[in-house]
Structures are given as structure tokens and as C-alpha cells.
Amino acid sequence: MSTNYAEAGTVRAPGRGIVFPNPFTLGTYRVFQRNKDVFLKLWKTELWPPVVEALLSLFAFGFGLGVYIAQVNGQSYIQFIAAGLIFSSVLFTASFECMFGTFIRMQQEKVFDAIIATPVSIEEVVSGEIFFAAVRATFNGTCVIVVMAVLQLIPSWWVILVPPVALLAGFMLASIAVVVTSLVSSFTSFNYYITLGVIPMQLFSSVFFPASQLPENVRWVAFLSPLYPAVDLGRALYTGNIHAGLLLNVVWILGLTVFFYLLAVNLMRRRLIK
Amino acid sequence: MSNNAIKTGLVLDKAAQPRPNVVVEAKNLRKNYKNFEAVKGISFQVYQKECFGLLGPNGAGKSTTIRMLNCVSPISGGSLSVLGHSVTGDIRQIKTQIGVVPQDDNLDVDLTVLQNLQVYARYFNIDKKEATRRADEVLELFQLNEKRNNKTDEISGGMKRRLVIARALINQPKLIILDEPTTGLDPAARQVVWQQLRLLRERGVTILLTTHYMEEATQLCDRLVIINEGRIMAEGQPRELVQRLVGYEVIEMRLAEEEKQSLLPLIANRPILLEEAGDTLYLFGQHNQAFHNLALPEGNYRLRREASLEDVFLRLTGRGLGAE
User: Fold this and answer.
1) Is the residue at A164 inside a domain?
2) In a domain, A50, yes or no
3) Residue B92: which of A3, A6, A15 has the nearest Cβ?
4) Which residues constitute the domain of residue A141?
5) A89-128 burial, b for 16+ CB within 10 Å, e for fewer?
6) Which bin fits A17, alpha (ψ -120 to 50), beta or left (φ > 0)?
7) For residues B39 and B30, is the Cβ–Cβ distance under 8 A?
8) How far apart are CA A235 and CA A222, in angstroms?
9) ipTM of this predicted complex?
10) pLDDT digits (tens, 9 = 90+) for B128-187
11) At what angle do helices B157-168 and B113-123 cross, to 10 degrees?
12) What is the dihedral of CA A84, A90, A91, A97, to 10 degrees?
């Protein structure tokens, strides 16, 4: 039988003003389910690329570039880069899903309009989009871990905590992408964020080389990158290099996540509620 | 003074005891966008089990009104209640009980016809078994059963439209709100949609629709309001509106300037109203004998026909429905 929606709480009438929604609602899950269902219909084209991408990247960086680099911070380069590639994958998956994917659903397919005519609210639509992107990103990041496990290149059992970090980082990066999407009027504007946001984040967040290698006067660039604390934490877990300072990374990522999530929801409301 | 008191008392009484069968009530409803006023204070009521129409040209404020009714656009002034709940309150109470048919077919293109209904039902927390049962029912009703496993980009425009209407019924709504249900359909597909809407009305579903086709309004609506530039111009039953505001018959004609002058004395003593819109003159016969034995000057175009809602609109605004 159908559940009475009144039990699930009330939905505020649309209006102006800043909102602080709860991202963990049934409506959010419904939107997540919708995206998941469509994704799984297309799994033949969507599911294998992350695995192949992980293999190619590890091969190129690990066995190609790695030959010239003896060790980084006491690790073989392939192990160093593996932790970086997990989060590089999270970055790209979450960002592209909530740029192009969200934009198509919102602007071209009018899926959002269809959903907000039901008891599901616009806040729940945005949250569901972000959750879905975060889960996809985690899946793709985990593919790198699986490939490394097959190659017997996993140094620590702490690695099982990497996917939860990837989920949180994916949620944060998807929120940032939604912020961008809420502001653009066409696809081409995404180039600004890709060139000035996504690519610099990938290059300067300790993915390919430790941020400590950057010249001292530009090292702060890494600390500005929302991806940096996630890569740093993820790599520590991957290698089993556990210390109390990692809690600071967790707080750092959580703070950024809450900030960008609230910004994303409110900007989307501003765009869609007229 | 005492007269006023009685009047106020009556109004209060009415407010305290709303008619039980009022499904939608708009009072002085307004909507402002940044630098223009789309809806300028409209009031109307929709009663249970009727088909109510908002008729007007593009840009009249119809879709804006619909968006406020659907609780996706905040109202700027006045009040609006749907099924006894204000749209400024807990809107989940409203949204669970209405069915929405938008102007664009916003179906999920990657999903099949059946899956579209199942996924939509899930937004209402209807479990899969019940959703499938209801989907079977509406697919049967809208003659879409053979297409249940087709993707939605593989079916015709008319079928997509029917699927969007079927989708709006999945939560068994008490009120179904349709924004221009047949815009963009060919005449045959339009007839099918009308037939289905009449069927729904017979089943006791209250229908509120917008349209800029006067024929659609005449075919479907029990009552309607004519909207232009954010204001209500007239309200009533289609037939009654036509007879009250236009009459029975209309003659359309195009005449040269000098011929127009000779026309006025010919109709002066008859129950005929004259209206000019663009290059065409309209003679509205307000009595069924109005044109009896009338000898009109030869024009390059002349048509005598029955009066319709289009003429009502023309008389009220001085322009046709199609005019932008």
C-alpha cells in the first residue's frame, strides 16, 4: 500500500529566503533512484569506462612515468599515484555528472519540472542529484582500488575507509558542480569551470606529485583546492599512515561540503523558483 | 450603515462556511515578476466535478496562474487555496492530491512508457506493485497498452501527450490541472485527448485547464474565465457567454474604406454590434433575426457563421485570440 506522505513531514511553500534543508529525506532518495534506474538502463555504455580508465592511467603513470621516479615519500610511484588517481576519478565523475548530467536533466529533458510537480521538493531534487553523482564517483574511484588490489599493490587494510572518504569528497565536488550549473545558461560556459576549476584541482592537489614539491610561495594554491584535503586523507588511509592530524582533514572536508551544499541548493532554488 | 453591516455580515458568513464543493479558490490573486505584472488580481472558483477553463491568448497569465496552483511558483498577493489548503502553507497536502499536466511533455526519454509511470508513482511513495496495477489501468484507459515497453521517444506526439495525462492520474488525484493539453497536436490526436478528458470528467475528476483554442473550451468546459493581460474579462458557461456578449450569428467581411461609411446606416436600427479587428469587420447579430433581409455592400470577403467564444474574446479585447 502507498504510504501517506503527510507522515513524511511537511513541504514548505516555494518562496524567497535562504533554506537549510535536510539532505537525508525519502524524496531525495526517490530522485537518487530515478537517476540510478536510468543509469542502469545505460550500463553497457556507462559501467566499463571507469575500469578501463583506471587500468590505462595506472599503466601510463605507474609503469611509464614511474620508471623515472624512484620513490615518493618512501613509496613506489605507482602506489603514490594510485591514491591520487582514486580522487582524480572522483573529481571528474562528480563534476561532470553535476554539470552536464544535471544541466541536461534540468534544461533539456525538463525532468526537474516533472518531479517538482509531485510531493518531491526542489531541495530534494538537488540533493538527489548530488547524492547520485557522489555514489557514481565513489564507484569509479573504487574501481582504481580494485585494480590495485588485483595487482597486489595495496599496502594497508585502512584502504577500506577510502570509499567513505570518496563518497564525502564526491558529495562536496558534486555540490560545487551544481553551484556552477545553477549559474550557467549554456554548455559552453562549463569550459570556464573545467579549465579554471577542475583541471587546476587535479594538477595541484597532490594527485600526481606532493603539494610540498610546489615552490614555497605558491604552495598555498594546493591548500585552496577543495580536493587537496581529500587526496591527503585518502592517501594516508591507502598507505596506512594514520595520525591524529587526519581528523583536521575530515573537519576541513565536512566544512566545505556543508558550505557548498547549502550554496548549491539555494542557488538552484533561485534559478528554478520564479 | 445598517445596510453595510448586513453586507459585511454576509461576506463573513460566506468566508466562515466555504461551499463544501469548492476545489480551487483564487481571491485577488497576483503575480509580479521583476519588472512586470503577469497576473493582476484575479478571482475565481472551481467546483467539484466540473471542467473549468482559463481561456486566453499567449502571455495572458494562464501558465503563471497554473504554476501558482501547482505550488511551484510563489504567489505575490491575494490568496489561493487548492482542495482546502493554502498554497502558502503545507503544500505536500496539495501535491499528493493533484495531477499535473505541463505544457511540455517532460517524460523520461531513457525509460519505457511503463517505467515512466512507475518512476513517477514512486515520487508519491506508491509501492511498486500498486504502481504497476495503476499503470496497467491508465495505460488501458488511454489506449497505450501496446506501447508499454517502448521508449517514450519511439511513440507519436499524440501518444506522448496521452502518457503525460495518464501519468498525472497515477496518484488518483481529486483535481487534474492541464496547461494547454492539446497545443501542438494534429486535429485527430486532439480529438482523442478531448475524448479522454470527457471520460475523466464523467468519472468525477475535477478538471482545470488552460487553452487558447476556443473550440477546446467550448467542447470541454462547463465554465470558464477569459483572461487577457493578467485580468479576467468575463466568466460564465461557454454558450451563455457567447449569447450574452455576442449573440447568435456573426458576419465577417472586408470592405474598402468608402464602403464602410455606407454600412453604418444599414445596421443602425438593427440589434447588431460592429467590431473592427485588423482589416476585418465583424457584425454580431444579437438576435436570431438580426440579419434578416439585410442587404450588405459587396466586399472582397464575406462569411456568415454561428457566434463562438472567439467572438466573445474579440468583443472584449478588440483583437482575436491568435493575435500576439
Assistant:
1) yes
2) yes
3) A6
4) 19-272
5) bbbbbbbbbbbebbbebbeebbbbbbbbbbbbbbbbbbbb
6) left
7) yes
8) 15
9) 0.89
10) 999 999 999 999 989 999 999 999 999 999 999 999 999 999 999 999 999 999 988 888
11) 30
12) 160
Q: Which residue of A has its CA nearest to B169?
A: A118
Cβ(A266)–Cβ(A184) below 8 Å: no
Indicate the burial class of A145 (C-beta count within 10 angstroms; 0-12, 13-18, 19 or more).
Answer: buried
Q: A19 touching B, CB under 8 A?
A: no
Task: Give the whole-angstrom CA distance, residue B4 versus residue B12.
Answer: 12
C-alpha A160/C-alpha A154 separation (Å) is 10
Supply the pLDDT for residue A4. Answer: 40
Q: Cell digits for B96?
A: 499528493
pLDDT tens digit sequence for B28-87: 999 999 888 999 999 999 999 999 999 988 889 999 999 999 999 999 999 999 999 999
Per DSSP bridges, beta strands B22-33 and B36-47 are antiparallel
Give the model confidence (pLDDT) of B230-277 as tens digits. 999 999 999 899 988 888 889 988 888 877 788 888 888 888 888 888
pLDDT of residue B270: 85
Residue B301 touches chain A, beta carbons under 8 Å? no
What is the domain count for chain A?
1
**Short-list A112, A139, A66, CA closest to A269:** A112
A34 chain-B contacts, CB cut-off 8 A: 108, 119, 122
Letter for the amino acid at A18?
A: I
In chain B, the N- to C-terminal Cα span, in Å, equals 47
Phi and psi at residue A239, to the nearest 5°: -90, -10
- pLDDT of res. A215: 87
Task: Provide the pLDDT confidence category of residue A16 given band limits of 50, 70 and 90.
Answer: low
Can you tell me the distance from the alpha carbon of B227 to that of B65, in angstroms, rounded to the nearest whole number? 11
User: Which of B:14-43 have CB within 8 Å of A?
Assistant: 33
Residue B189: pLDDT band by 50, 70, 90 thresholds?
confident
Percent pLDDT > 70 in chain A is 94
B116, B324, B251, B61: which is closest to A115 by C-alpha? B116
Cα separations (Å) of A259 from A160, A256, B177, B215?
27, 5, 38, 53
> Which amino acid does the sequence have at B61?
G
Decide if A195 touches B, using CB distance below 8 A: no
Residue A1 lies inside a defined structural domain of this protein: no
- What sign for the dihedral angle of Cα B241, B246, B250, B256? negative
For residues A146 and A54, give the distance between their C-alpha atoms in angstroms, rounded to a whole number: 9
- Treating both helix axes as pointing N-terminal to C-terminal, what angle do A122-150 and A77-96 enclose, rounded to 10 degrees? 160
Say how many C-beta atoms besides its own lie within 10 A of residue B26's C-beta. Answer: 25
Asked if residue A254 is part of any domain, the answer here is: yes
Grid cell 505544457 — which residue? Answer: B103
Interface residue B76 vs chain A (CB under 8 A): no
Task: Please answer whether residues B110 and A42 qualify as being in contact, where contact means their C-beta atoms are separated by less than 8 angstroms.
Answer: yes
